Automatic annotation (TrEMBL):
Protein's organism: Halalkalibacter oceani
Protein name: Copper-exporting P-type ATPase
Signal peptide interval: none
Keywords annotated in UniProt: ATP-binding, Cell membrane, Copper, Copper transport, Ion transport, Magnesium, Membrane, Metal-binding, Nucleotide-binding, Phosphoprotein, Repeat, Translocase, Transmembrane, Transmembrane helix, Transport
Protein localization: Cell membrane
Membrane topology value: Multi-pass membrane protein
Recorded catalytic activity of this chain's protein: Cu(+)(in) + ATP + H2O = Cu(+)(out) + ADP + phosphate + H(+)
Matching Pfam families: E1-E2_ATPase, HMA, Hydrolase
EC number: 7.2.2.8
Main enzyme class: translocase
Residue span, HMA domain: 4-70, 72-138
Length: 803
């Protein structure tokens, strides 16, 4: 069964119950394997079988449930069209791209307008697709950037709040003058008239409050309940009961002023709209980190095509282009230096504050800053393939994913609203039948108050806002969590297992010693050694090759080469079999090396990696390579131990060398001489002892162990395979990032627990107070609005967190 995944932005959700309703509705569609709705992010992620269903079905279902799907929009000018058939061809091609909802070509204006999902397709993909048809798409340059969905929502909520406030203030005035301590305030008689109050309250109830009625209608129609149901029920009870009281007062010709509740209904709606305004503003700030990342990208690139240098939008750069970057400019795309040298500030990507020296052949990352020299680079990755785009994608996915604690909260909030309605009805009956028999006035106030104060908005926002803020802040620190569940699980890590080469050490070893025996000539041994290691990708092999070349020895190409993981290499040079590696490798081939054991021991005690050399079945000598420890490793291990973490070093190196390195950085537990296939088994052994294990590595041979561990952390300077297998990517290549990731997880989970406390405290503690009649409806509205805002503001503290 094939599987595809798509993300849709959804507008109109008012609380967690809305999210649950959409989730359930989408899950019922044939072919949908999984549907997750993130209330805070206002998005849904759907995994489905494309042979059974499609994106349109999801949109139709969401709109049927009473919500709206929001699309990203891109507009391009088209060049190369000659007739309407060209327009049709372009339209069809763009519409076929995964993530494109609709593409409309205007042949007369030579433009195309595309609605798309930015997580699945980028403008670059559209440009490339059309280019293959023989046409060109040129991104429109607008003087003023379009307001995004969030800004429009803020503007809309502000307008509603302003309108609602103007009409509600006179009603609030009438309520305030009822208190003894404010009786001196002047109140125009007209505001005391029931019909004037009705005229003021009605637009608030049915114009501003229309959103709650619409939401409640769709919820009830789909056999569910949400915040809209509670607000609509509560305010309608106050509004229509006030009409009844006003009509009764007029028809009976009573004197004085009836005690109406128009102001309660109006104030509740106004306060909730104010709360939504604050909430939308604050929720917009939770994705600030992502906006910062997106803002890092250069807008234009200076390319050389056919010998002519020209400036083009970065979306139009293609792989293979030669790009010129002058001092002080941003690198527009990922590439490799063809000409020149410079220092590049990579802090925005890796968190490393010191500029990195780069020269011909070195890779450069898009969005980094060229500090001094002018350089020319060859574009190797563009569009969605660049490092920055991949980082943004990982952060988006993390922010859109659900932590396990969120799934539990979703279940609670799903049944919360029906229970609240039941409690409110029971409270009304107790007041009406027992406490104040027949007194509708006394019974209806607790009913309204319970319905209003128990809205589960804060409950739905508690977890996702913290995940969004926490993962965004982590990204700024160079920590990429691949999902909310990893951000959650990292807090419980008890044991950290560190790979040695490239993780604890720099992974840039140097050739330090070479000695020969059995009448071999040193220059000959170096020739065979360097030639044999020439095709190996292992850092130790590269150190040997560089060291031999630096001694002026020319190398040859091996006719045979075999890397033996965990043992060494076997190669054939000039018809001679060359073996370079461990004692085990020599034993396998019956090579006698006993005379060199004392020398090997001395080298290993110095923290060097000693390797044995055999030529045509005869022991030829010993070569030693030293890999220096990273300057930050000792400090990082100390921080881990201060957090009561057990620190283990896992390496394929021999015990003496491993122990020497471990001693330098303060690691007490070493597992050495482990071949790559056994690394994951060692992780499993630790897990069988009941420990939650994090594995930190950077190489291909670490991938199985990274996948086996409870949390896999890949050093971002390592291989793509390791990064793919890991749950967290540490962009800095610094072990301090391991501690930062654990502390960020702990702080985020603490923040989530605080939010859940706030949410449950408001929603549950206030219900009994409301039930006994000690809470006015308008106070309930204020408390409910404040609960959502307080939760989001608390989550925003994570954006300022320092570790």
């Amino acid at each position: 069964m094939s599987q595809e995944e798509i993300s849709l932005k959804v507008a109109g959700m008012t609380c967690a119950a809305c999210a649950n309703k959409i989730e359930k509705g989408l899950s019922k569609i044939d072919g949908v394997q999984e549907a997750n709705v993130n209330f805070a992010l206002e998005s849904t992620k759907i995994k489905y079988d494309p042979s059974q269903t499609n994106t349109q079905a999801f949109e139709d279902k969401i709109e049927k449930l009473g919500y709206k799907v929001i699309h990203e929009k891109a507009e391009f000018d088209i060049s190369g069209m000659t007739c309407a058939a060209c327009a049709t061809k372009i339209e069809k091609r763009v519409n076929k791209l995964d993530g494109v909802f609709s593409a409309n070509v205007n042949f007369a204006l030579e433009t195309i307008s595309v609605q798309y999902d930015e997580k699945n397709v980028k403008p670059y993909d559209m440009i490339e697709a059309v280019k293959k048809l023989g046409y060109s798409l040129i991104a429109k340059q607008e003087a003023k950037e379009k307001m995004d969905h969030k800004e429009k929502e803020i503007e809309k909520q502000y307008g509603k709040f302003l309108f609602s406030t103007i009409l509600t203030l006179p009603l609030l005035w009438t309520m305030v003058t009822h208190f003894e301590f404010t009786s001196f305030l002047y109140m125009p008689d007209m505001f005391m008239n029931p019909w004037v109050q009705l005229a003021l309250a009605t637009p608030v109830q049915f114009v501003i409050g229309a959103q709650f009625y619409r939401g409640a209608y769709h919820a009830i129609k789909n056999k569910s309940a949400n915040m809209d149901v509670l607000v609509a029920l509560g305010t309608s009870a106050a509004y229509f009961y006030s009409i009844y009281l006003g009509w009764e007062w007029v028809s009976t010709g009573r004197q004085g002023m009836p005690e109406l509740y128009f102001e309660a209904a109006a104030i509740i709606i106004t306060l909730i709209v104010l709360g939504k305004l604050f909430e939308v503003r604050a929720k917009g700030r939770t994705s600030q980190a992502l906006q910062k990342l997106l803002g890092l990208q250069a807008k234009n690139a200076r390319v050389i095509r056919d010998g002519i240098e020209s400036e083009i939008p970065v979306e139009e750069v293609v792989v293979g282009d030669t790009v010129v970057i002058k001092p002080g400019e941003k690198v527009p795309i990922d590439g490799e230096i063809l000409e020149g040298r410079s220092a590049l500030d990579e802090s925005m990507i890796t968190g490393e504050s010191i500029p990195i020296d780069k020269t011909v052949g070195d890779p450069v990352i898009g969005a980094t800053i060229n500090k001094n020299g002018s350089i020319k680079i060859k574009a190797t990755k563009v569009g969605k393939d660049t490092a920055l785009s991949q980082i943004v994608k990982v952060v988006e996915e993390a922010q859109g994913s659900k932590a396990n604690i969120q799934r539990m909260v979703d279940k609670v909030s799903g049944i919360f609203v029906p229970i609240v309605v039941l409690v409110a009805v029971l409270t009304f009956l107790v007041w009406y039948l027992i406490i104040t028999p027949g007194d509708l006035r006394s019974a209806i106030i607790p009913l309204i108050t319970i319905l209003v104060i128990a809205c589960p908005c804060a409950l739905g926002l508690a977890t996702p806002t913290s995940i969004m803020a926490g993962s965004g802040r982590a990204a700024e620190m160079g920590l990429l969590f691949k999902g909310g569940e990893h951000l959650e699980n990292t807090q419980s890590i008890q044991t950290v297992v560190l790979d040695k080469t490239g993780t604890v050490t720099k992974g840039e070893p140097e050739l330090t010693d070479i000695s020969v025996t059995n009448n071999f000539i040193e220059k000959d041994v170096m020739y065979y050694l360097g030639s044999a290691e020439k095709n190996s990708e292992h850092p130790l092999a590269q150190a040997i090759v560089n060291g031999v070349r630096n001694k002026g020895v020319s190398l040859n190409e091996p006719s045979q080469f075999e890397a033996i993981p965990g043992y060494g290499i076997r190669a054939v040079i000039d018809n001679k079999e060359i073996l370079v590696g461990t004692r085990k490798l020599m034993d396998q081939h019956s090579i006698n090396f006993k005379n060199a054991l004392s020398q090997i021991e001395v080298l290993e005690n110095e923290g060097k990696t000693a390797m044995l050399i055999a030529i045509d079945g005869q022991f030829a000598g010993v070569v030693a390579v030293a890999d220096t420890v990273k300057e930050t490793s000792k400090e990082a291990v100390k921080r881990m131990l201060e957090l009561d973490l057990e620190v283990v070093m896992l390496t394929g190196d021999n015990k003496r060398t491993a122990n020497a390195i471990a001693k330098q950085v303060g690691i007490g537990h070493v597992i050495a001489e482990v071949i790559p296939e056994q690394k994951s088994a060692e992780i499993e052994k630790l897990q069988q002892q009941g420990k939650k294990v994090a594995m930190v590595g950077d190489g291909i041979n670490d991938a199985p162990a990274l996948a086996m561990a409870d949390i896999g952390m890949a050093i971002g300077t390592g291989t793509d395979v390791a990064i793919e297998a890991a749950d967290i990517t540490l962009m800095r290549g610094d072990l301090n990032s391991v501690v930062d990731a654990i502390q960020m997880s702990r702080k985020t989970m603490r923040n989530i627990k605080q939010n859940l406390f706030f949410a449950f405290f408001y929603n549950t503690a206030a219900i009994p107070i409301a039930a006994v009649g000690l809470l006015a409806p308008w106070v309930a509205g204020a408390a409910m609005a404040f609960s959502s805002v307080s939760v989001v503001l608390n989550a925003l503290r994570l954006q300022k967190v320092k570790i």
